[in-house]
Every structure is written in C-alpha cells, then in structure tokens.
Amino acid sequence: MAKRLSHYDRAGSVRMVDVGDKPVTERRATAEAFVRVSAAARRLVAAGASKKGSPLEIARIAGIQAAKRTSELIPLCHPLALSGVDVTVTPARGGYRVTATVRVSGKTGVEMEALTAVSVAALTIYDMLKAADRTMTIDGVRLLEKTGGRSGHYRAR
C-alpha cells in the first residue's frame, strides 16, 4: 500500500491532521544545520568583537524562541506545549554547527520544531555576522533523529 501525504484528504484538499485519537507519548527530535563563515568573521566572534552581544548565544536563544513559535510559522503545525528545547552552536571547521533537540509529551511529533530551531538559529548567525561576511551559506538543514509516536525511531545515516 502506498503512503499518503498526511496533510491532504482523499479528495486532495489541504487539511490539518486530526491527532485527537492518538495517544500521548514522549517524543523527541534532533536536527542540525551548518553555517559556513569566513575565517575573518570567525576570528571576530572568537575575539568578542560584536557590540550586539555574543552572536552564538543570541542565535541559540533565537532557536529556542523559534521552536516555541513553530505553529505560527508553518501553517499546518499543531501548537505544542514543549517540555524542553536545547540548542547548541559549536565552532566547526569552516563555520558553526547548530543542533537542536526538542521534547514534548504529546500526540504529535516535534520534528518541525527542531528543524525550525536550527533554521532560525542559523539565520540569526547570518544576521549577526553579515557586516563581516556576506558570503555565508547555510547548509545541511536536516533531521538527525526522532523518537516516539506511531512511526517509531528514525536516525539519519
């Protein structure tokens, strides 16, 4: 049997998925993104040269805030009372790796919240550093892992 896209009814109309009959389970999702940043801009960050505050800490907070507001940004996402959101921004070769882990006890997963968190955190790094490097790129936004729910455990290769 072929899988159907869950946000479309049998007639092909867009719909919000009804999760009313689903059981509440513990769910977790982890996503990542990579921001390629010039060596010169990374040196400025390491030296604490930003007058706006730590760009990486501001990006981390932006990612947390974004996860909490995902249903306002993605039209068919359910609003969720998140149990926890952890966002990290770590220096890596050529830039910064952003990861987010989001947890909820609920009837639907938190993949979109984790993906939104890393996306907004990465965009915030761009915003904070654009005066020093307009050549930055955001790459590799992806789901790394999810647990809970009917579809079970998923881990990226």
Class by helix and strand content? alpha+beta
List SSEs in N-to-C order: EHHHEEHEE
Give the distance, in angstroms, between the N- and C-terminal Cα atoms.
Answer: 25 Å
Helix content class:
25-40%
Query: Can you tell me the residue ranges where pLDDT is under 50 for at least 5 consecutive residues?
Result: none
Describe the global form: elongated
Overall pLDDT level = 92
Q: What Rg is obtained from the alpha carbons, in whole angstroms? A: 18 Å
Break the fold down into its secondary structure elements and pairings.
Elements: E1 25-36, H1 39-46, H2 55-68, H3 70-73, E2 84-92, E3 95-106, H4 111-129, E4 137-147, E5 154-155
Antiparallel strand pairs: 1-3, 1-4, 2-3, 4-5
Helix pairs in contact: 2-4
Structure explained in plain terms:
Helix 2 runs antiparallel to helix 4. This protein has a 5-stranded antiparallel beta sheet with strand order 2-3-1-4-5, with helices on one face. It has 157 residues and is α+β, with helices and mostly antiparallel strands. The mean pLDDT is 92. It has 4 helices and 5 strands, in the order E-H-H-H-E-E-H-E-E.
Quick summary:
This protein has 157 residues and is an alpha+beta fold. It is built from four helices and five strands, in the order βαααββαββ.
